[in-house]
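Late entry, written up from scratch paper. The run itself happened at the end of the previous shift, but nothing got recorded in the book at the time, so transcribing now.
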Amino acid sequence: MNEENDRLVTILTTGDGGQIALASSILDEAEIPYFEKGGISHRLGIYLFNASARFVEIQVRAMDVPAARKLLAENGLNPD
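Output as recorded:
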């Protein structure tokens, strides 16, 4: 296991629920694992809310960053 490749990198920061849903859908379709840090998480049908967070950071493994950023940009999102 390469720790550098498994490091999580933020590829999108947004407070827009539509952008979060679109990014999640794109990454799911591409089978790129991701993590939603902060805000409301709706993974696995469970809704968790972090009142201190206004924005959600979508994070992927470092090795998936180029592909994930490309997919988000191709679909009208502005990746970090």
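The first strand starts at residue 8 and ends at 14.
(Scratch paper discarded after transcription.)
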